[in-house]
Amino acid sequence: QVQLVESGGGLVQAGGSLSLSCAASGLAFNNYAMGWFRQAPGKEREFVAAINWSGNNGRSADSVKGRFTISRDNAKNTVRLQMNSLKPEDTAVYYCAADRGGRQPVWITLRDYYYWGQGTQVTVSS
Length: 126
Prior knowledge:
- The protein is mostly beta strands.
- The protein contains no helices and 11 strands.
- The chain has strands at about 5, 10-15, 20-25, 35-40, 45-50, 60, 70-75, 80-85, 90-100, 115, 120-125.
- Strands 2, 4, 5, 6, 9, 10 and 11 form a 7-stranded mixed β-sheet that branches.
- The protein starts with a strand and ends with a strand.
């Protein structure tokens, strides 16, 4: 049974930093691309960042470029999202996701991800 468990969310002031972590179990982690998505109240879930199976190729949304960094540790089955210079518009529930495996390229759309975590709330106050 595949499980993705996010942690590290919370309340932070604008300009601050948070680090989200996602612990994966029940899958051969180094075969899967991993992604972070977010969903703000009343809005659709959107792509934030993704990283390929080996960790040497990543992509991020224009809205977070230069502020957020995705990384992974295949030895620990974890993927991390370091968020700096946070803005109130970054407030959302953040979800970790895994694709269907097979060491595919990095995906940026929801439909390419198969396994999802429960999400962690990030709130940025102004």
